[in-house]
Amino acid sequence: MRSDERTAHDLLEFGADCAAIDCRGRTPLHYAAGARSQVCVALLLDAGASGSAIDDLGASPLYYAARLPSDQEGLLRCLFSHGADFNCRFRYGGWTPAHAACATENHTNLKTLIDLGADFRLSDNWGNTPLQIAVFKENVEAVLCLVSHGASTDSADQLG
């Protein structure tokens, strides 16, 4: 999806449904968040799009924003200010946005999630915490961020 703010504005002005879903259950907000378009996200939210919309995979727009490899602090804060659930779980695996952020090379999204109140102690379906994902991905900055915020270093997944 292109990040074309003018087109999004015009479509909304002429009555486009900001809650429309595609064959995957994704809304325009899912696509705008995944395309890193804070302006389009804000336009859609202001037009009434749900910040907590969940697609067929159980992913919210916030999940797609959190897993982006670049700093998305403004986008994450915009979604948060419109009621996005920072602890929603991806249907397959049970990852939260914090898990997704730990799987990228960018720890800034994780720090923003924590600052906004995301629970980084939640485990996925296999017992992995975001810290364990960060360690597995060798994401040193995310590990340091989590430990400095009090993440438990002695939790075990289902394999021990």
Which secondary structure elements does this structure contain, and how are they paired or packed?
Layout: H1 5-13, H2 28-34, H3 38-46, H4 61-66, H5 73-81, H6 97-102, H7 108-115, H8 130-136, H9 140-148
Helix pairs in contact: 1-3, 2-3, 3-5, 8-9
Kindly list the characteristics that best describe this protein.
9 helices, Serine Threonine Protein Phosphatase 5, Tetratricopeptide repeat, ANK repeat, mainly alpha, 160 residues
Q: Any overview of this molecule?
A:
- By secondary structure, this protein is mainly α.
- It has a single domain (5-148), classed as Serine Threonine Protein Phosphatase 5, Tetratricopeptide repeat (Alpha Horseshoe).
- Helices cover 44% and strands 0% of the residues.
- The chain contains 9 helices and no strands.
- Helix 2 packs antiparallel against helix 3.
- The termini are far apart.
- ANK repeats lie at residues 24-56, 57-91, 93-125, 126-158.
- InterPro entries: Ankyrin_rpt, Ankyrin_rpt-contain_sf.
- It comes from Mytilinidion resinicola.
- Pfam families: Ank, Ank_2.
Report the top-level CATH class: Mainly Alpha
Shape: elongated
Q: Please outline the major beta sheet.
A: none
From the N-terminal CA to the C-terminal CA, the straight-line distance is 41 Å
Tell me the quaternary state: single chain
- Number of DSSP strands? 0
Output the structural class: mainly alpha
State the helix count: 9
Give unreliable regions as ranges. Answer: none
Estimated share of beta-strand residues? under 5%
The SSE order reads HHHHHHHHH
Q: Give the integer mean of the pLDDT values.
A: 91
CATH homologous superfamily annotation: Ankyrin repeat-containing domain
Counted up, domains total 1
The CATH architecture classification is Alpha Horseshoe
Bin the helical content. Answer: 40-55%
